[in-house]
Amino acid sequence: MGVAGVELSKDPDESLGTMRRLLDIMARLRDPDEGCPWDREQDFESIAPYTIEEAYEVDDAIRRGDMDDLQDELGDLLLQVVYHAQMASEAGAFDFEDVVRGISDKLIRRHPHVFGEARAASREEVRRSWEETKALERSERASRRALPDDPFAGIPSALPALMRAAKLQSRAPAESTERDAQQALLGAVEGLSLSEAGEAREGLGDVLFAAVAVARRLRVDPERALRDASDRFVRELRSDPGNSKSADPEVGSKSEVGPKKSA
């Protein structure tokens, strides 16, 4: 039997042995005396960019439908979890078992229709129950930390801008973001000024934020919509050799700036 009566589908000794091997490898890499010099020097901040990069590579493998790559990238992403947990264990904060216990308890708590007495007849009821449980968790966390109850707490500022805008809007009162979303978008476009850089940046921000509201109204993921549009743009240029060179010499050079993955 597993947590809260959850049946285990595989031999727990085999599964735990496989996971234990990975944890032991990570501990050895971080060993102060016999570990890897590069791995020993890393901290949470230095590893964080790799964690983000691996998550994007998982997404890319899924979008390409490449199951071999997906298996490999999921392993790389799991390594990131193990890496952070090892560093936290060294600092006396928490360890990998605490991470697993926490997410297991959270899944059970957020699925009372599966592990409890609650009933959910539709996806919408499940979503509503999930959001209600998350709101209660945020409120309890704020209370424990003596902080004001903030509906936007827990939304990372480092999220991709479109994704963050969608999450912020999802927690705001519906009438503040969804009412006349299309008109708000048109108004933002009409009010766009290109005369001053600061005004242009602010105006474009308003346009994008309003576009996210329209996407939510249409139940479209704005991040995916923009990725798909970018993919179409690339396909169109690749299909026409005459358009292979950008008219703007700055385009392309800036897009290559960013952290490079360590070997």
Task: Describe this protein's structure.
- This protein is an all-alpha fold and 263 residues long.
- Helix content is 65%, strand content 0%.
- It folds into two domains: 14-144, MazG-like (Helix Hairpins, Orthogonal Bundle), CATH 1.10.287; 161-242, Orthogonal Bundle (Helix Hairpins), CATH 1.10.287.1080.
- The chain contains twelve helices and no strands.
- The protein starts with 11 loop residues before the first helix and ends in a 24-residue tail after the last helix.
Give a quick set of tags describing it.
263 residues; mainly alpha; Helix Hairpins; 65% helix; disordered C terminus
Task: State the gist of this model.
The protein is mainly alpha-helical and 263 residues long. The chain has helices at residues 12-29, 37-41, 44-64, 67-90, 96-109, 112-115, 123-144, 161-171, 174-177, 181-190, 197-217, 222-239.
Rg is 23 Å
Number of domains: 2
CATH topology of the largest domain: Helix Hairpins
CATH level-1 class of the largest domain: Mainly Alpha
Secondary structure topology:
Elements (H helix, E strand, L loop, with lengths): L11 H18 L7 H5 L2 H21 L2 H24 L5 H14 L2 H4 L7 H22 L16 H11 L2 H4 L3 H10 L6 H21 L4 H18 L24
